[in-house]
Amino acid sequence: MPDVMLNWSFNHLFSGEVGLSLAVLKVRELGRGSTPPGCTVARSRQEWSRASLPHPSPSALLQGVGAGAREASGLRSTGTPKPLALVATLLVSLHQSDPLGLNATPLPQDSSLVETPPAENKPRKRQLSEEQPSGNGVKKPKIDIPMTPTGPSVPSSPSVPGTPTLKIWGTSPEDKQQAALLRPTEVYWDLDIQTNAVIKHRGPSEVLPPHPEVELLRSQLILKLRQHYRELCQQREGIEPPRESFNRWMLERKVVDKGSDPLLPSNCEPVVSPSMFREIMNDIPIRLSRIKFREEAKRLLFKYAEAARRLIESRSASPDSRKVVKWNVEDTFSWLRKDHSASKEDYMDRLEHLRRQCGPHVSAAAKDSVEGICSKIYHISLEYVKRIREKHLAILKENNIPEEVEAPEVEPRLVYCYPVRLAVSAPPMPSVEMHVENNVVCIRYKGEMVKVSRNYFSKLWLLYRYSCIDDSAFERFLPRVWCLLRRYQVRAWGSWSGAALERGEAAPQRLSAAALQMMFGVGLYEGTGLQGSLPVHVFEALHRLFGVSFECFASPLNCYFRQYCSAFPDTDGYFGSRGPCLDFSPLSGSFEANPPFCEELMDAMVSHFEKLLESSPEPLSFIVFIPEWREPPTPALTHMEQSRFKRHQLVLPAFEHEYRSGSQHVCKKEEMHYKAVHSTAVLFLQNDPGFAKWGPTPERLQELSAAYRQLGRSHGSVGSSSSSSEAKDRDSGREQGPSREPHST
Q1: Residue 107's CB: how many other CB atoms inside 10 A?
Q2: Which of 192, 297, 481, 526 has the smallest CB count inside 10 Å?
Q3: How far is CA 541 from the centre of its chain?
Q4: Residue 33, SS3?
Q5: Within 10 A of 400 (CB to CB), how many other CB atoms are there?
């Protein structure tokens, strides 16, 4: 009887939920030795429907697979034929094939796009609008840990994009501890939301797969590059590197870079970065800070005059420039000696006058030196990229993996978006160590440790399960997590002295606990603005009101949806990334874009979105969140305000809305959110079909604004727990930006 039933299962299992439901019943009934009702007649979907058998949810399916597998395991131990184990394995493989129906079959020749998967293959998904989030904006976790089958899980075919994999845990005490580790206590994301982003089927990426040895070398070289930058600024210009300028340099360079490294630039035109040049020049002869009191204004005016005179005397400037600067400086010193009753406003007016008179001459004298700094950093980066690639290719050669593979033929069809796939096979991974300290998961490779909270570790596990197709046994999961965390961590070590690192000094405890983990950061709170994300309430409203199911700028650590674009396709693709936003070309869908605040990147984003909106006849919508910088306005903001695709513009006032910290994967709960110290502009860019489907109606805009007000009430205690100075420090990268002149008052 079992052999006959097994035969039937292989010949008549249907695709989608119906077939999986039938197969689950078969396995469970095989364990009981009886024939399940309806199985003998349910030879098609139509017959299954006539049998009025229920369509279980994905969670119920997993429980059914586990139950059938356990019963099959019991039968094996008593001498029942072993083919039952194959049925359980088949069920896992079927569920892996596309449980959410994200990857559609080829669409009809008329190119009509279907926004959701076919009804018969679409499981009933939990909707955000059906849940009332708790007072702190955190959704209660909902996760099922499947049981151990009697046979090994079957790897999914790489030819099926978007195929998830399952890590099956056993029932031993160690496995139960692992299962508890993967069950989050607080959830700031919703990975159940299906995508409505439709793209053309694309080939795999040619970027090389990550490896801990390569990532370790890359991180060491980037730390050295940061230190070179600091030393050049100090020695040549007598200033500290402008805050976050190195981070924005990497962002701006990657907009134009055609090199092979996912992080360091190596093939850019022009060589001199406009972003780095602009930010250094803005701090010459000294950095102008915000002032509150009269004495501070007087001291700032004196320092600026002294620095301008010293610079013009030490550089090769024209006689006329020297004369103008020296005369204005002496006039300023004379005024300072005579006028002892001046107010703060008088001092600031005098400083502005001095800057207008001396600024052009000082900038001309410093121009060649600053260009030399930018060029030197780029050429050092170029050399470092060569060293990294040589190391990478040596590892591939050692494992007989070719660095170049023949590009597969890509079928010209439309599919729902799926994670980046790599063309080059991944080499074997070295072992890494993992242990848990309180609620922090620590992963160590060759003495280098990275940390992530247990909640976010479980999130990475889920994303990996959904997205990875070459590691069904999860043997490479921890090494890839180490590479991912190291990649984002490496941008967090710049403000702490590189010389101290070379001397072997330990990082300050406060930095080592949190700041060293911050993405894109070079100091305490720095970088959190570059990778801050919208709060949960706002994402829920965007999905419910405007159909948003995709983030254009995110990471595996801060994403809300499981489909998103990120900076690094090599490390992030295994965790669901669709690749860099500027390389992602959807034909349909609703998207949220909250880019890192680099002017060149934001402007390139707007141009990219307009091309997509212009070329697509299908519903396409982008809701963009950028800072409302007005002195002067950024090109990206001006570009969007003048765009014919702009449907509405909403302004969120400063201190009346929040962001989720870029260090959310390691920070304390009370530091999860922070007030924005600048206004944020929300712009709706939509083509005509997108406007008809997801248009910003007054009712929808009112509900979106209510989501921010709800957030303010629920997080009021959190916001008040942080001092205003900390909030300003944390958000200063967003507030000023790369070329913002700080306000004098």
Answers
A1: 14
A2: 192
A3: 20
A4: coil
A5: 8
